[in-house]
Amino acid sequence: MKSKKKINNRDITLFLFVIPAVALYCMFFIYPIINGLYYSMTDWNGITKKFHFIGLGNYLSIVQDARFRGSFLFTLVYALMLLALVLVISMVLALLLNSRIKYKSAFRAIYFFPAVISMLTAGLIFNEFFYRVLPGVGELFNIEVLKTSILSNPSLAKYGILFIHVWQSVAIPTVLLMAGLQSIPQELIESASLDGANKWQLFKHITLPFVLPVVTVVVVLMFKDGLMLFDYVVGLTQGGPAGATESVALLIYNHGFKEMKFSYGIAESIILCILVCTISFIQIAVNNKKKVY
Fold this sequence. Notes:
The chain contains 12 helices and no strands. It has 293 residues and is mainly alpha-helical. It is globular. Helix content is 72%, strand content 0%. Helix 3 crosses helix 7 (171-182) and helix 5 packs across helix 6.
């Protein structure tokens, strides 16, 4: 006869401690998702009490919406550029700061400083830089492209936003990569060096495989950060000029709170959430196959 597991006071106590956390999680995470899914299938404008259930109408409209496609293409290209630049720069900084160079503590303080500034504050500061300082430099040295703010140029505005985003986003990935570099067994590097391996071979066959789990984290975080672009655009261009820098997150905000298409904006946010989760899952799955255990 199978013996029944006895529930003791400790199990009851642990269960009672879990209840508030589960209740709050359901209240502020699960319920809003379910509620959002429902409202995304309506024509609710966010204010009136009366609305109609339209099924997948919003989703079908989004697929055919040229504005959404343009915003998504801009956001995707921007996220890829952000990921590539942050990954390369943070890896170079981590390798330099992990080597034997002078004034490492001072350099660590300098590169980490941008991370403590809020995104919106950085955007507002550089907004003045692009509109006042840089055009002055262009006039002084007769550089035609800099005589007007690059944020007013549809072709260059995204690069101004990208510059600030990269400047502020490099710090945390650098710290993570430095931690990964310091976990590599030095005996392995010394043995490979004695066997005649050069610096590139050491990086390719030893350093990179060992820090790949950290690289995976950085890739997922930075790509998600790029896809969720909002604060920098609001602080710098408001989606302009002529909608050239309107990211998907800003488009959702504009539809929901400015154009009173609340349910339409919810449907766009659900699509964005699914895309971010899918891409992150693929990235993690691919990188897990290359891990060194």
